[in-house]
Amino acid sequence: MSDVRSQGEIELSLLIEALFPLMSLQIYNTLSRKKEEFTPLAPGRVGMYVCGMTVYSDAHVGSGKSYVSFDIVRRYLMFLGYQVTYVQNITDVGHMTDNDEDAGEDKLIKESTRVKMHPMQIAETFTRRTSEDLARINILPPDIMPRATGHIIEQIEIIKELIEKGFAYEMNGSVYFDVTKDLEYGKLSGRKTEEQEGQGRVEARTEKRHPNDFALWKKAEKGHILRWPSPWGEGFPGWHIECSAMSMKYLGETFDIHGGGIENQFPHHECEIAQSECATGKPFVRFWMHNNMVTVDGVKMGKSLGNSAYLRGLYEEFDPLVIRFFLLQSHYRSTTEFKKDAIAAAGVGYERLLSVYQRLSEAIGKIDIRPLNEQEFAHPLVRQFIEEMNDDFNTPKAIAVLYELAKETNVALEEKKQGKLGELYQIWNALAGDVLGILPGSDSGQGNSDDKEKKALTALIGKEIERRNTARAKKDFALSDVIRDNLANAGILLEDTKEGTKWGFQ
């Protein structure tokens, strides 16, 4: 894979390596059960897949923690100069209920029946609503957001490969993965096949060879709405196969990071590894990352448990960025106890930081935000921030660094040193904005937002108008006409008025 990073990204990564030669990013790898130094498969580039939305209801705080956790991973990798391809799927078919996902009912179908709406209408509604809710807590949109229903062909091809290689079998129109054929099955969770004996449901045993065999394809019974043709008859894919198909399609058969909630470690991610590696004969994922859960009175928050606090409802009581700040105050691998009092307390601390940043912004006036330069990277607090984040993305300690930055900023504000204030302003935007995403307007991090694109377009057109006006003043009407025609060809019309030249789209 070639290095297609921009010159700026390459220079940034080289600068960080030069300034911090002994500092390396350490990530806790669930597969090895230890922290490991992170080096990507391709220099300068990171392929990252995260289990995404289950689009049959709104997102709750537990889901919010997972998305925030991996948003931080992505943002920090970008801060370090990596080009990140972030893929997050939409599960709009095959997501089962109950402990045995093969015998349960698809949650989307269940909700569709309850509210008497087509399953795809449910999926579209909650895909939109969840995307809106996540954007409000400054979560960057995925680079690629594939849908399970849009990748049925790819899933069928993997299943065919597994059958051909003897790792799967067809039974009455359904296809199952044979866990006894994979000697490494259980390596992620530590559960051995023989230890799981007897955990399967009785009704599932009549069809599966082994109680822990899992469905790759399920026969669609009469009345099942979501169904597709396959070599084994009409049916629909199992839950696990979708993530293998979509992650490998966009990131390759081996990629760097796969993330998700700890509840997905088994069986979902275990099954992903088994079917992917048996199909390709290659290692599937190099770093497995799992965020811990949000609890309510010590019990996992979950839609099926009826103890969920939904993000959309909480936004009526709290600033969305306060909720993000609250979630970042616990490490992603630690549990987070949900209490509204705790969110309110987090809000007090957040306001302290934000007030300092706002005073700083007012003191320096309008200034362009840019990547940190060598002097700013060498700042002791930047170094400390990087050390904390390099320790498996330790956001609680990184936030503690921000409080120290606030103290230094207050002193600089009192002394009114403009050069120092400008340096601190860039540091605030890099650490609190680009990496942690807790500053208003930092939703796009180092990526591209619609707002930034509009500002950039306005600035570019303004420059062209200025150049045209200069040409007209010099009576260089040929150049003036060329500038006007080039803009027109791009769909931008100029109008000369008494108030000056105005522009608009064709």
Supply the helix-strand structural class. Answer: alpha/beta
C-alpha Rg (nearest Å): 26 Å
For this structure, the quaternary state is single chain
Residues in helix, %: 40-55%
So what's the overall shape? globular
* Percent of residues in beta strands: 15-25%
Number of helices: 17
If you average the pLDDT, what whole number results? Answer: 87
What does the largest sheet look like? 4 strands, parallel
Poorly predicted regions: 197-205, 444-451
Sheet with the most strands: spatial strand order: 4-3-9-10
**How far is the first residue's CA from the last residue's CA?**
41 Å
List the helices and strands and how they pair.
Elements (H helix, E strand, L loop, with lengths): L6 H13 L6 E4 L4 E4 L7 E10 L6 H19 L3 E9 L15 H9 L3 H18 L15 H13 L3 E4 L2 E4 L24 H4 L8 E6 L15 E3 L1 H13 L3 E7 L3 H16 L4 E7 L2 E3 L2 E2 L10 H4 L5 H9 L7 E2 L2 H25 L9 H4 L2 H11 L4 H21 L2 H18 L14 H24 L3 H13 L2 E6 L2 E6 L1
Parallel strand pairs: 3-4, 3-9, 9-10, 11-13
Antiparallel strand pairs: 1-2, 5-6, 6-7, 7-8, 11-12, 14-15
Helix pairs in contact: 3-4, 5-7, 5-8, 7-8, 10-11, 11-14, 11-15, 13-14, 14-15, 16-17
